[in-house]
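This section describes the prediction task in plain terms. A model, or a person checking by hand, is given the sequence of a single protein chain and must write out its three-dimensional structure as a string of tokens. No templates, partner chains or ligands are provided. The sample shown here is typical of the held-out split.
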Amino acid sequence: MLDIQFGQASDLGKVRTNNEDAMGVFIPASRHQARSHGFLFAVADGVGGLDLGEVASATAITVVTKEFAKAQAGTMLNSLMPRLIQRANAAVHDCTLAPEHQGRRMATTLVACALRYDQAVISHVGDSRCYLVRGGQAKQVTQDHTLVNEQRKMGLVTAGQIAESESRHVLIRSLGPEMFVSPDTSSLTLEAGDVLVLCTDGLHNEMSDAEIAAIAGQRKSAGELAGELVARAVEIDGGDNATAQVIRIRSVEQVGMYRGRPYRLPA
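The expected answer:
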């Protein structure tokens, strides 16, 4: 069956006085639940410059983890995950309408990764990322919902120019401002030895893919790797909160698909 090791870490950085990042997990309580529900990992980054980023990020994480645990057994992850993101968005949006918060704006990014059998389904809004580290290389699985990334896709700027752009932090999608949001969702077939890294921009803005791969590929515990990634990002700059979740895949349970439903392959 699917066997993983995970660790997580977060740091204020050198400038901020509060941590607007949040993270959460759902770990199945039994082998049966590992197959019926799976694992869930999620990282959120409250949007700086707004009033209640820490409330927005914490709300999003609470909703996705609780709703994942309550999902019907066997629900297809590629349809469940965008629904969870939408519910998180509605919850954050409702917070802005609460009497104690009226007139105060809030928003957050969110990246969530569900694992079951040999599959990972990643759904996200904003610029918190998921990386797959395999064979010594880190591949960015998610695509940032930022103004400069849209400009890059249209050929208006190069990838190298993004790091120097004054607009690199401007989001075109986030949770909270609108009643509805459109998350991007993708899936991966996992292999034993893979490492997944979920992180906020306070980490990935400071580190190259090669450096993320070099740290995450070490033979250390997942907790040590998460701590080292965050510490390195803060060492380089530290101008933002930095958060990382590291999930190491120790073994998988291969499945086939029939009409969109997984079935276990014979040994």
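For orientation: The first helix runs from residue 31 to 36.
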